[in-house]
Amino acid sequence: MPSQPTQNFDVALIGGGVMSATLGAFIKQLEPEWSIGLFENLDQAGLESSGPWNNAGTGHAALCELNYAPAGKDGSVDPAKAIGINEQFQVSRQFYAHMVAQGLIGPPKTFINPLAHMSFVMGDAHAQYLRARYESLSAQPLFEKMQHTEDLSTINEWAPLVAEGRDPSVRVAASRVEAGTDVDFGSLTRQLTSYLGVAGAELNFGHRVTGLERSGNGWQLTVKNRATGAKRAVNAKFVFVGAGGGALHLLQASGIAEAKGFGGFPVSGQFLRCTNEEIISRHHAKVYGQASVGAPPMSVPHLDTRFVDGKRSLMFGPYGGFSPKFLKTGSYLDLVASVRPHNLVPMLAVAKDNTSLVKYLVTEVLKSRAKKDEALREYYPAGEGSDWELITAGQRVQVIKKDARKGGVLQFGTEVITSADGTLSGLLGASPGASTAAPIMIELLNRCFPQQFSGWESKLKEIIPSYGAKLNENPLLLAEVTAATDKVLELA
């Protein structure tokens, strides 16, 4: 039992990642007097899934990620999902710009930098698909500046590492949008969290939430100080579980009916990180390819420039893997401990229906370093393994949920779970994740605070100038918002 006096907050944020930081920042803008307590198990914010070396170092806007615009059976490409993700990222960009313009976070280059986004494929079938994707997306205002080529010399201008040494007899194709970005979500998360502290939130690092149960009209958290072992009780009127892979266990502990039937499938991975500064300096783009058959969307190969803590870097991967941990710093018992009678059927159904994924992960786990270097050379033909170091990426827990027809399905995306009374909400899942944190949190506020939300909309319109509108359906507003946002974020 907690041995210290009970604390009381209006809002408790569990987890110090980009989701909690974004939600806290919105709440402090909308209700400055509300008390907020943030509880993070690690020693600072943004060290798990929000960390740039843990898969979260890009601005997912569907500019280059092919899995957001798959081909239909007839070969056509429906742009709807890509448009939706790009619309979401536009909201996040406006949120960043507001925080910068108000002086609430640091200079833009400390967390966001301009960087071309490029798709690159090999072979006739993939080239035909990429052409269909380009024709579908470039007809949309959000993607009208997309370029496309099958000319190797043009690709060499866009991304020389990709073109040099490539067999000219193999058909290749590339699409590019110059106006992409790279986002260091670790840096952004820490800056947003620092703003919360300045605005009066209580930041508790090295504190793990070990219990979550109803208390009156709200919730009581049991919080353990990792350094001393001391426990205390914390009461909150509203709780957000933004603990990444740790969210499922806490949502299950809460007992809310809405969390029943959900499970998680953890996927780990590795990257190659370049150690040769001359090579790093010659590549200035995010180059995404096609996922292997059976591979999860998060395993799409990419040769990826990143800016981490202000330093330019280059990485390739990811290479899929498996660990039963739900967090990089989690326990090997996480997967087993998540099994409940209510999610056993969905989890077994997913295991039965995803043998190709299991085969892919086993193959990846057994892949030697030499094989990893071969995969690198598919995208960088002149690549030498000696110029790259192997690093371990973060854990991703893909959502397993009930399905009336199949029993259970594996979902590659994000899922917001909210109690019926709106006092508890949590986020499960992965990509596009961090890039869409702002619109996800606005929707969460609408869902959990319906009585207050209408009174917040004028402030939200101030923070998000396009609030309530679809930019893809309003080219004039798109141009206006893009110009203003680019100027503040120094992206133009």
Helix/strand layout:
Layout (H helix, E strand, L loop, with lengths): L3 E11 L3 H13 L5 E5 L39 H22 L10 E3 L1 E7 L1 H14 L9 E3 L2 H7 L1 H4 L8 E6 L3 E3 L1 H14 L3 E4 L1 E9 L2 E8 L5 E11 L5 H8 L8 E12 L2 H5 L3 E4 L13 E7 L2 E11 L12 H4 L3 H13 L1 H12 L2 H11 L8 E5 L3 E8 L3 E5 L2 E5 L5 E6 L7 H12 L1 H14 L11 H15 L3
Parallel strand pairs: 1-2, 1-11, 2-8, 4-13, 11-20
Antiparallel strand pairs: 3-7, 4-6, 5-6, 9-10, 10-11, 12-15, 12-16, 12-17, 13-14, 14-15, 17-18, 19-20
Helix pairs in contact: 1-6, 1-13, 2-13, 2-15
Description of the molecule:
The protein has 15 helices and 20 strands. The protein has one domain: FAD/NAD(P)-binding domain, CATH 3.50.50. Helices cover 34% and strands 27% of the residues. Strands 4, 5, 6, 12, 13, 14, 15, 16, 17 and 18 form a ten-stranded mixed beta sheet that branches. Strands 1, 2, 8, 9, 10, 11, 19 and 20 form an eight-stranded mixed beta sheet that branches. Strands 3-7 form a two-stranded antiparallel sheet. Helix 2 (80-101) packs across helix 15. Pathway: Carbohydrate metabolism; tricarboxylic acid cycle; oxaloacetate from (S)-malate (quinone route): step 1/1. It comes from Zafaria cholistanensis. It catalyses: (S)-malate + a quinone = a quinol + oxaloacetate.
Question: Any key phrases for this structure?
Answer:
492 residues, alpha+beta, FAD/NAD(P)-binding domain, 10-stranded mixed beta sheet, 8-stranded mixed beta sheet, 15 helices, 20 strands
